[in-house]
């Protein structure tokens, strides 16, 4: 063999013989050196909205309409309320997650499995898409009262509603991803003689992963919305319930603390999904 | 029945009014290296897809060893131009999955061992655990060849496999392909699609020229240069140049005919 190859560390392109075209790399050494101040700049730019909002909050709490309005608790009071409620909020988080996780897992599992098979079969598309086109856009919040009435426990009905809300975006994105399978991968699967199971799970599924993760991000967002809405209706614990409860008692510092806490939890869940996505799609560029 | 690839009266079109391929009759004896040469629009890639069993003719018959071609088969390996490795599998897993299909009884460790051997054969011993995105175009195409070899199919169909490579890599991979093909016993029946006359002359035992719109056979030439060809010597050879001229003229005449018809 005329080509000499040296063992490179994982993750770097292999330097072939001089004629070999290298895959494009976007970060060159000089640019990386210049990117330190630009990273700092990016952090500053990203903080602008936060700083302005915080300043407005301080100002509103102090001066609007004449200062010390109970509807606008000051940031200091809110932080104190948050500190005080942390144990209660943690309990609420556990309660909420005991609804969120089963609903979301079920939606992910069923959404992916059905999406992969429906998306890669013209027949199944003809059978299921006319129904999905009508059922998917129904705002899942309308199911909440009925689910609570029909299902034996509040928990079950909340899980069901979370499931419905998260299922459709995951199913639809997965089906779209499976449907968009590049023909060269399909040809290759046929040439290698892959059976149906191998075709769906070793080819269609990984190829559809970018779509699947988009669907999961939307589904996760919906799941949080439906979870908190369901908790407003009938829970005796949970994040949505916490906010509703203290609003009923006009304890606005605690209520605002609950909103902020829920925001942080949602953000962390989204970031977690994003991290999983980056790991799973390392091959995707 | 002699071992051969046979096409009889093959017509292909997506719509009846615009034929892509018309009345193709061709017999390729086992072990022959045939280059299908033609300009773009000559349907040469379509012809290869028909041989692969990925598409079916409107009329006519294709067969291998007397058996009609009714779909893809592990007897006919295919290498495409656009390095169609699965990007979510490491290079060695891309090969191992092919071995798993060709030898369903092989254990996991055996498959991996054989896959590594195939990669060594094409000079990728240092890229075994890497992913396609980490490789250059030439290396990805080496891996694609390794995967086709892993199927151990008696027929190998290649659709402009080196078309996207720079000249240096192209020459290197041509040599690699010849080296592998010439040392195998028995030799594979190889159908190689290209639009590069020099490539066809350097590689093939025979050149089949396809004319355009619709695609049909316009020339069928034996290439008699002895095997273990020397690139340099061949390119200095007078007979090589005469053949090259005559093929170029055939293609030019076909282009002219098309222009007049238009």
Summarize the structure.
With 285 residues, chain A is mostly helical.
Polypeptide structure, described:
The complex is a heterodimer of chains A (285) and B (262). Chain A has 285 residues and is mainly alpha-helical. Chain A has helices at 29-63, 75-119, 122-135, 144-150, 154-179, 183-191, 196-234, 239-248, 252-280. In chain A, α2 (75-119) runs antiparallel to α8 and α8 (239-248) packs antiparallel against α9. With 262 residues, chain B is α/β, with parallel strands linked by helices. Chain B has two domains: 4-75 and 153-261, 3-Layer(aba) Sandwich (Rossmann fold); 85-152, no CATH class. Chain B contains eight helices and ten strands. In chain B, the strands form two sheets. Chain B has a six-stranded mixed β-sheet, with helices on both faces. In chain B, strands 2-1-4-5 form a four-stranded antiparallel β-sheet, with helices on one face. Chain B is globular and about 60 Å long. Chain A binds chain B through residues 1-3, 5-8, 10-14, 16-23, 184-185, 187-188, 190-194, 198, 202-203, 206-207, 209, 282-285, and chain B through 52, 54, 71-74, 76-78, 80, 82, 84, 86-89, 97-98, 101, 123-127, 129-139, 151, 165-169, 172, 175-176.
**Helix and strand succession of chain B?**
EEEHEEEHHHEHEHEEHH
**Which class best fits the helix and strand makeup of chain B?**
alpha/beta
Radius of gyration of chain A: 25 Å
How many β-strands of chain B, per DSSP? 10
Q: Which ranges of chain B are low-confidence, i.e. pLDDT below 50, for 5 or more consecutive residues? A: none
Proportion of β residues of chain A? under 5%
Indicate the radius of gyration of chain B in whole angstroms.
Answer: 19 Å
Number of helices of chain B: 8
How many helices of chain A? The count is: 9
Helix content of chain A: over 70%
Number of separate strands of chain A: 0
Strand order within the widest beta sheet of chain B: 6-7-8-3-9-10
